[in-house]
Amino acid sequence: MALSSGRASVTTPGTAVRLSTDALPMAETILVTAFTDNSDYVVVGASNVVASHSTRIGHPLSPGVSVVLGSDSSPVQPGDVYVDAVVSGEGVTWVAI
Questions:
Q1: What CA–CA distance (Å, rounded) separates 3 from 11?
Q2: Which of 16, 17, 21, 65 has its CA 20 to 30 A from that of 41?
Q3: Which residues face 85 on adjacent strands?
Q4: What is residue 1's predicted lDDT score, i.e. its pLDDT?
Q5: Three-state SS across 12-76?
Q6: How many domains does the chain have?
């Protein structure tokens, strides 16, 4: 079992950012946590994720809140998970197991 971790920050709201651009192994689970100092929601999802309040697509996280993605029967690739933010510079930290 390999452990990977990182952070993803959104420079331009409305532009989805990959959790990782590195070639990483599939993970049984990925714990994604919104930065505790975010001032608004960040949204986690697929490449079509949108954080905008009026057109939101994905799973919203308020500051400091986490979500677990994947399972032993449905692993996930960190590079296939994206984040978008309402506010520039906000984002998430993540750990893949």
A1: 26
A2: 21
A3: 42
A4: 59
A5: CCCCCEECCCCCCCCECCEEEEECCCCCCCEEEECCCCECCCCCCECEEECCCCEEEECECCECE
A6: 1
What residue numbers bound the domain in which 81 lies? 4-96
Structural element, H or E, at residue 9: strand 4-9
What residue ranges of the chain have pLDDT lower than 70? 1
Residue written as token pair 């009026």 = 54
User: Which of these, 83, 93, 87, 86, lies nearest to 36 by C-alpha position?
Assistant: 93
pLDDT value at position 25?
A: 80
pTM: 0.93
Task: State the number of CA atoms in the 13 A half-sphere of 24 facing the CB.
Answer: 25
The arrangement of strands across the sheet holding 91-96 comes to 4-9, 91-96, 30-34, 66-69
